[in-house]
Amino acid sequence: MVCRFAPKVDTCPISLTNLAVQSSPAAGIDLVHQGRTLGARPMAPYKTYRNKCAKSLTIRAFINRFVIGPEWLYIARAKTRYAMIHSPLTNKKRKTLGLALLLAFVLWSDLFALQDVQNDHHPSHDIELNSFGFNAKKRSGFVVAGHTEHVERGLTLVHFNSGEKYEFKTFDTYASAEACQEFIAILRQLTEKKAVFAILAHDSAANAIISHSSELKALGYPKLVNIKGRQAYAMHNFQGHVYEQVDDLQVRLHLEPPNRLSDANIYFPKIKYEFEPGNDRYIAHAAGEIEGVKSTNSKEALDLNYRKGFRFFELDIIKTSDGKFVAAHDWNMWSRFTDYKGSLPPTHEEFVKHKIYGAYHTLDMEGINSWFKAHPDAVLVTDKINDPMAFASAFVDKQRLIMELFSPMAIEQASKQGIKAMISQEPLLALKGDRLDYLALNQVEYAAVSRRIIARNTKLMQQLKDQGVKVYVYHVNFDPGKDEKYVYDNELGLVYGMYADQWAFGPLDAPKVSK
User: Backbone phi, then psi, for 424, in 5-degree steps?
Assistant: First the structure.
């Protein structure tokens, strides 16, 4: 067992077997642990160690609070910044400290005992249903056999083939009358066939069609019929009858799967999409991942991912305080990457001084142009910047530039100047009238949308595909299990391509059918 003190400045891990507490009326309290390290600095025995701790550890004569975790026992820092007690310890204070430490050990031991009991019940085989209403500002989802699925706005039906095998589909009942009718039809089938299933609401799910459905009332879902616009809702029939729960913010259920469940029926068959592989289907997100680090927008990431096979590269383009274009996801992330402590945004001069993690070179406009000039088959896809004329005039080759744009005005400006525009999700969905006519009129051949919305917008995705608009999805690797391989196997073909962190596609020489 290990005890870690949480100081203001340094963290001092201390083995309890070698820890001693020494005190005297003159000296107060000292923690002694010979030969260990304080942060990255070597610690000498008692006297030197005491002096070093005096300006780094935050320890008072009494302990404010304890935070118990499965791996570490944290003695939390107190309110003052500098730590060691210089005043004498009274007997009362000494007893208070001893009792606090004893209580912490008891709690720690109880925690592990509780975990051992829980492990006997195999919680990884349990089922969790988590529904969050709009005001909770959290993602709803469910967990089956340790596998997590997040769901989107509306009502999600989860059909269980067994305790570990399932299928599900989300219906945007909030916005679509067609989705409401489809949901009711599938629910009727599941109910009539006595299937085992669950329902989750996320964000906003209510609709007049749902609330006025006599069929839902007859099927026995009174709380679903009466659900309000932004409420959380969960339902299951694991015990052979309908159980419903509604709350303004959240409903969280932890359930054991039904015994001996076996149902071969499929209610949500997967659609198969055919597509021809090609490296233009994969955009290296923020220059691509390098050594496990994402979103660096660095020269080294461009070099590495070019060698792996990428030819389309996204860079996030923002401006320094003196108006220069540079590549960085955002200034807060850049400052964390570079350990920059000055005001944000920095000047261009400050920007080029700093490396990411001390190793990767950042890119200003000169660096961007130099790299793309040296790689004539590479294409730049921009993000963040919404000024097509200014950036295109600064880039080395307008013919190898695709700009994701965020307003109709910017898209129309790009069209007039012959700049390839990629319409972003928000303006695409907000277009009034005939979307396809607007895109054709402005010669828009690309679109960028979240992969989280495509399941409820399959009709639009198919229309864009039929018109020749190449749709690329982002939010790859944002949800558990939804990585490059998942998108490749299940979603390419409906959409044209993806923003990928890693090259995970192998040789590009054979047609692929996705499930």
Answer: -80, 165
Q: pLDDT for 89-122, tens place per residue?
A: 456 655 666 676 666 665 555 555 444 444 444 4
Closest CA to 179 of 187, 170, 188: 170
DSSP for 23-58 reads EETTTEEEEE-TT-EETTEE--SHHHHHHHHTTT--
CB half-sphere exposure, 327, CA atoms < 13 A: 32
324: Cβ contacts below 8 Å, ≥ 6 apart: 348, 351, 364, 365
What is the rounded CA–CA span in Å between residue 350 and residue 138? Answer: 37
**Other C-beta atoms within 10 Å of 41: how many?**
9
Any idea how long the chain is?
A: 515
Tell me where in the chain the CATH 3.20.20.190 domain(s) lie.
279-500
Q: CA-to-CA distance for 350 and 356, rounded, in angstroms?
A: 13
For the 279-500 domain, the top CATH level (class) is alpha beta
CB atoms within 10 A of CB 511: 8
Amino acid identity, position 23: S
Kindly give, in sequence order, each residue whose CB lies less than 8 Å from that of residue 250, ignoring residues fewer than 6 positions away.
Answer: 130, 131, 132, 133, 136, 138, 232
User: Which burial class, exposed, middle or buried, applies to 172 when counting CB atoms under 10 A from its CB (0-12, 13-18, 19+)?
Assistant: buried
User: pTM for the full model?
Assistant: 0.68
pLDDT per residue as tens digits for the range 356-385: 999 999 999 999 999 999 999 999 999 999
- The answer to whether 286 and 329 have CB atoms below 8 angstroms apart is yes
CA distance 48 to 33: 11
**Residue appearing with tokens 């997590």:** 148
CA distance 155 to 174: 9
Phi-psi label, residue 167: left if phi above 0, alpha if psi -120 to 50, beta otherwise: beta
Residue whose pair of structure tokens reads 């997100």 in the numeric block? 285
**510/487 Cα distance (integer angstroms):** 17
CA nearest neighbour of 345 among 362, 332, 354: 332
Average pLDDT over residues 417-424: 98
Within the chain, how many helices (H) and strands (E) appear? 16, 31
DSSP 17: G
